[in-house]
Amino acid sequence: MMMVMMMMVLIVMVVVVVVVMMMVMMVIMMMMMMIMMMMMMMMTTTTTILLMLMVMMLVVVVVIMMVMMMMMIMMMMMMMMMTTTTILLMLMVMMLDVVVVIMMVMMMMMMMMIMMMMMMTTTTTTTTTTMMILLMLMVMMLVVVVVVVIMMVMMMMMVMIMMMMMLLLLLMMMMMAMVMVVESMMMIMMMMMMMMTMMLMMMVMVMVVVMMMMMMMMMMMMMMMMMMMMMMMMVMVVVVVVMMMMMMMMMMIMMM
């Protein structure tokens, strides 16, 4: 039985890593496309350099996250005090966290894109007001992110304390279910925020249409399409993760 569980854990780990890598590759490709578009739009050198820096930062963050995940999994395996079920649960939570972080990064990118568009198109007066609004939005986003992270940490601490107290497996499963519910709520919040950002972009486009030539419009439409595709991919990934979780839960119940 233990062997089977271990094999399952390993398979799940592999799947998680593959999914994360795919997401990372997608994000990097998106960034590259953006940079190319910006180049086409004849932007200044400073902005392009800034974009490049953003890409590099993103890659570094993702790599660090992957390493941390691996370390966590290794530690869990070593400890082996924890049952395989707890390891599986932790893995699920980590998967959710990864998705949330990727969504956050994407939202930040969208904000940056909107700001760039503003800079490129509108006049100075309009840009200043819009930029202020965007800055406020970004600050709000940051606050939300911080709160979410703190909540996650607290949840993890609670779970670890429960494990140390060696309470019943059922209790632990209840706790994990709570964590998952909170995280799913957070995901919904993220989706809503992304939608809001999309609406903002639409408004910006409406403002800009008057001033722009056709080529610019086409560029914008391409960007929007790319964003929509990315969002669809995110939804797909979330669905897959949720399905995997359900399967895990079922298997656990059957094991019990």
Question: Any descriptors?
Answer:
0% strand; mainly alpha; 6 helices; 256 residues
Can you walk through the features of this model?
The chain is an all-alpha fold and 256 residues long. It contains six helices and no strands. The protein has helices at residues 2-40, 45-79, 84-120, 124-164, 169-209, 214-255. Helix 1 runs antiparallel to helix 2 (45-79) and helix 2 (45-79) packs antiparallel against helix 3. The longest helix has 42 residues, at 214-255. The radius of gyration is 21 Å and the shape is elongated. The termini are close together. 17% of the residues are buried.
- Count of DSSP H/I helices: 6
Proportion of residues in extended strands: under 5%
Please estimate the helix content.
over 70%
How large, in whole angstroms, is the Cα Rg?
A: 21 Å
Number of strands: 0
Assembly state of the chains shown: single chain
Q: Which structural class best describes the helix and strand composition?
A: mainly alpha
Instruction: Give the uncertain stretches in residue-range form.
Output: none
Round the mean pLDDT to the nearest integer and report it: 59
Terminal Cα separation, in Å?
12 Å
Biggest sheet character:
none
Global morphology: elongated
Summarize the helix and strand pattern as letters. Answer: HHHHHH
Organism: Dreissena polymorpha (Zebra mussel)
GO molecular function, one term: transmembrane transporter activity
Keywords: Membrane, Transmembrane, Transmembrane helix
Protein name: G-protein coupled receptors family 1 profile domain-containing protein
